[in-house]
From TrEMBL:
InterPro entries reported in the protein's UniProt record: ABC3_permease_C (IPR003838), FtsX (IPR004513), FtsX_actino (IPR047929), FtsX_ECD (IPR040690)
Protein name according to UniProt: Cell division protein FtsX
Membrane topology annotation: Multi-pass membrane protein
Lineage: superkingdom: Bacteria
Family membership noted in the UniProt record: Belongs to the ABC-4 integral membrane protein family. FtsX subfamily.
Length: 306
């Protein structure tokens, strides 16, 4: 009987404040969708870091005849065979840092350049002897780039030591910045949602002050009086959380798998899978249920005298 009364009161309260209930649902849905999106963005950045950092190389570019005339690092002339052998021997000794060494000749570098930039005007004027020989080093730990740079930068025959990780760091810095911006908007939306929940509870409690007064007179407990208001907020929040989950599922389906189909158009990016999305949904639903319920509970302590 008591449970039936509480449920009936929930329905009455939701219908009585329909406009504000709808506003609560929308604000909770948007804020939790941003919350889930920021979590998925963090997972995506971590996945991309693991994928790309595992593929980055450190390149030791060797001086050629053209560099000897224009680059101060190659003032002593093009790299000699003895210098190349010494560089390779030193790399072979760095077993704790170096995982794999690949040598690229001038002809191979020219071929790769033609494959990538064959349509550019500059490609037609280049010759193989203008390209640089290089050693491509795959590190066991991409963070150990500085060990290679310190050992070989400025050495005779070495034009430069370049780390591809630096390029990726700029990309991941941009993605992390976007993620923090999304979190800031999410926090703002959560504050708006909480304020709407508190105001909705206040209006609902004020509109039913006669009923609650009668319930106090007949000896109803504080929790029994508060329960319908708390459950109203929880139900509205849960509906919003369900909508937020729907947003995330639909976004993952249409943006990555279908619609924009980024998984095929951007096949160089290792996108997060459905498992990452599905594991976030219970957290979003739990937050959507508990957050409004707690907000209503604390609001009632102040605005409903029981």
């Amino acid at each position: 009987m008591r449970a039936q009364f509480v449920l009936s009161e929930i329905g009455v309260g939701l219908r009585r404040n329909l406009t504000m209930t709808f506003a609560v649902i929308v604000s909770v849905a948007l804020s939790l969708a941003l919350f889930g999106g920021s979590l998925l963005m963090s997972d995506q950045v971590s996945t991309m870091k693991g994928y790309w950092y595992d593929k980055v190389n450190v390149s030791i570019f060797l001086c050629n005849k053209s560099d000897a005339q224009s680059d101060p690092n190659c003032a002593k002339g093009a790299v000699t065979d003895d210098q190349k052998k010494q560089i390779l021997a030193d790399l072979d000794k760095m077993t704790t840092v170096v995982q794999k060494i690949t040598y690229e000749s001038q002809d191979a570098a020219y071929k790769h350049y033609k494959e990538q930039f064959g349509d550019s005007p500059l490609a037609s004027s280049l010759t193989p002897d203008q390209m640089q020989e290089s050693y491509r080093i795959k590190l066991k730990d991409p963070e150990k780039y500085q060990v290679i740079a310190t050992a070989f930068d400025g050495r005779d025959g070495v034009q430069s030591v370049q780390d591809q990780k630096g390029i990726l760091d700029n990309l991941f810095g941009l993605l992390n910045g976007m993620n923090w911006a999304a979190r800031a908007v999410m926090a703002l939306m959560l504050v708006v949602a909480l304020m709407l929940i508190v105001n909705t509870v206040r209006v609902s409690a004020f509109s039913r002050r006669r009923e609650t007064g009668i319930m106090r007179l007949v000896g109803a407990s504080g929790f029994y009086i508060q329960a319908p208001f708390i459950m109203e907020a929880a139900v509205a929040g849960l509906i919003g959380g369900t909508v937020a989950c729907g947003f995330l599922v639909v976004a993952r389906y249409f943006i990555i798998d279908h619609g924009l189909d980024l998984s095929h158009k951007l096949n160089l990016i290792n996108f997060i899978g459905w498992d990452a999305v599905l594991t976030k949904l219970p957290l979003i639903l739990a937050t959507s249920l508990l957050m409004p319920a707690l907000a209503a509970f604390f609001a009632l302590r102040k605005y409903l005298k029981v």
